[in-house]
Amino acid sequence: MPYLKAYCILLCIALMTGCTSVSAGFQSNDFHNIKSAILKRDSKPLDAWDRMRKGFQMPNLNTELSKQWIKYYASHPESIRKIAERSSKYLYFVIEEITRRNLPTELALIPFIESAYNPSAISKNQASGLWQFVPKTAQHFKLKQNWWCDERRDPVISTYAALDYLEKLYKTQGNWHLALASYNCGESTIQKAIARNKKLGLPINYSSLKIPEETRNYVPKIQAIKTIIKNPEKFGIKLPKVSNKPYFSSVKRNKDIDIEIAAKLAEISLEEFKALNPSYNRPIIKGPYSQTILLPIDTIDTFHNNLKLFKGNLSNWKIYKSKNRETFASIAEHFGISEADLRKSNHIIHKQKVTSGQILLIPTDKIKNNIKNNCITSNLIEYEIKTGDTLLKIAKEHNTTLNNLIKINKLKNDKIVSGSKIMVPFNKK
C-alpha cells in the first residue's frame, strides 16, 4: 500500500537521524498522525470536490492580498455557488486530466478566475473559452479558429492545450506561483520582472516581483478559491454535488448534423447541448471540422437509438460559396428564399451588398416553404403587363420569386413587353 511505503521511509529517516525518543522531538504518535494523513489522502474520494482537495499540492500563498480575496469571495457566496454549479459539467474531466498528468489539482481552479467556468466567455482582449486563450496563444497550441468553429471554446481540446501550456510554464519557471503568473500576463513579462529583481539584488518570488496589477491579484484569487473549496462550511458556502465520475462522453459522427437536431435526438435541451459543444459557430456541425460531439453519458444510448429511427434530413442547411461580386439579392433569388432570410442566417449587415468567395448557409427549410407556397402547380391567374412593370416587381407583388415566374412562363430571361400577359401565383399580398 502507498501509505505503508511512505510510513516506512519516514521511520527509517527518523531512526537514521536519531529521532527515536520523545526528548529528540519526534514522538511516537507523530507516526500515527502521518499514517492517518496518508491513509486519508489515499482513500477513495467522496466526490469531485473531495478528489480536488486530495490533489492540492501547491504551497499556500499566505499574503494580505490572499486574505482580502478570501474575504471578498466569502462575502459573495451566491457567486461562488453559481460558478461551482456551472463547473459541474466539466469538473470531473478537468480533474481527471490534471491527475493523469500528475499535476496539482489547484489548476482546476484557474477557470473559476478566468471564465467563471463559462466555456463561451469572451474578454475585452478577445480571450475566449474556459481557459481564456487569446487568439495568438491559441494558434501556437494549434487550436482551430475559423468560420465553422473556435476550439478555444471546446471544453476538452482547450483543457488539453491549457495544461500543455501550464506544464511548459512550470518547467520554465520552476515554481507554480510564477507559472500561474506567466499564464495570466505572459512568460516574457514575468521573466523581465525576475531579471529586474536579480539585477537589484531583490527576491524573485511571486510576491516580490513588480508585475501588472491584474497579475499581482491573480494568484491570491486562486489561493482564495482554494481556501474556500478546502473548507466551504467554514465560510457558510454549500457546494453543489459533483460526482466523481464522468458527466459527458464523446460520440462519433460521420454526417453533417444540425445542432438543434442533435439535441433533439439526444432528448436534451438546446442549451444543454450548446454548453457541452460551445465551439461551433454555425447551426450545422460540418464533417471536416469535428468528428465527435459531446453528450451527457446517460443520453448516449437515447441518441443512437433515435438516430437509427430518424427518417428526415440531419441538416436543414445547404453550403454555398459565392461567386465574384455576386449580390445577396441574386443569391437569394437563385435559391428561392428572401434576402432577409439569407442575411439573417449569415449575420450579414444591411450595407454589405456584394460578396466574393464567401461561404454562406442557405436555409433549405425556407426553400421548401417557398416551393410549397409558390410552386408552379399553385393556383395561377393571368396578369397583363403594364407600362413600367418589371418581372422582379411583379414577382414581389405576388409574393413569389423572379426565378419562379421565369419557370412558370417558360421565359428565356426577365425581359417582358407591356400589354402581354403572363401567369402568376394567386397569393397576392
Automatic annotation (TrEMBL):
GO MF annotation: an example: hydrolase activity, acting on glycosyl bonds
TM stretches of this protein: none
GO CC annotation, single: membrane
EC number: 3.2.1.-
Keywords in alphabetical order: Glycosidase, Hydrolase, Signal
InterPro entries tied to this protein: LysM, LysM_dom_sf, Lysozyme-like_dom_sf, Transglyc_AS, Transglycosylase_SLT_dom_1
Domain of life: Bacteria
PROSITE patterns (alphabetical): LYSM (PS51782), PROKAR_LIPOPROTEIN (PS51257), TRANSGLYCOSYLASE (PS00922)
UniProt-listed Gene3D superfamilies: 1.10.530.10, LysM domain
Keyword field contains Signal: yes
GO terms, biological process: peptidoglycan metabolic process
Name of the top EC class for this enzyme: hydrolase
The LysM domain, residue ranges: 318-362, 381-424
Family: Belongs to the transglycosylase Slt family.
Protein name as catalogued: Membrane-bound lytic murein transglycosylase D
